[in-house]
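Problem: given the chain below (306 residues), write out its structure.
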Amino acid sequence: MAKAATRERVNTASRRDWGAAADAERFGRPDHGWRLRLYTVIFEADTRAGKLFDLVLLACILLSVVVVILDSVDAISRKHAALFDVLEWTFTILFSIEYAARLSCVRQPLRYATSFFGVVDLLAVLPAYLMLLLPGAQYLLDVRILRLLRIFRILKLAAYIGEYRALGTALTASKRKIFIFLSVVLMIALLMGTLLYVIEGPERGYTSIPISVYWAIVTMTTVGYGDITPQTDLGRLIASIMMLLGWGILAVPTGIVSAEMTARRFAQRTPTTRTCHDCLSEGHEPQAKFCKDCGAQLPPYQRDLP
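Solution.
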């Protein structure tokens, strides 16, 4: 029982701290001092201060994105221009302090600065400073392009919400299947577009194979712009088949990603040493009431809280 309790405590701790442990190994966790305390608050969320930091940071990210969205509306922007400027620089200063704090509390700041979220942190504050240093930038490009770069702040939400990581992991694991699926779709579009080019001809708008492939893609995705339409009966028959085929094509990527997410959800369940007293089989889930092998009633699950 002591061994099972110890194993359960280790599994619970590992599930809770896997993200923090990965960051600690990659960026370097300080050993002691104020850097260790700052690292615990910024990169870990097990303490009250760490949770509060994450919540405040998430609120600032969402508010900054709302300011960007409202600032793009001319009527609202003209009325509250001064307020938006104050809010923008407030968020810029806060994110600058956060970025500097992250770099100062890790032992390998260059590695964090060149990581994905390190680059996102830099993009969150860089446009405001560029507009100060380059007052003549409007002659080279519209200054609003730099302001729109602030939308990169929304990407920082992925570092703090587990569901974003789960979705990203599922998409990464499904990339080969999705690539093969898209390859098949492109081959079908190429074949159908070439067939329509032969059937309809340039006189009906299908002036080349690329134009015909464009029509095939628009038809298969059920967009249907209507700028090019088949005129012959055979062409309309092929178009109808492609439209019906498009409904099935739209469902395939969703099924691939959903299946991957479901598989990973079941795979992440931590096995226990809970044993059936009748058949002695192990690995029953904590909430199970009956044996999965013989159907006998299981004794209550017991463990020591960490």
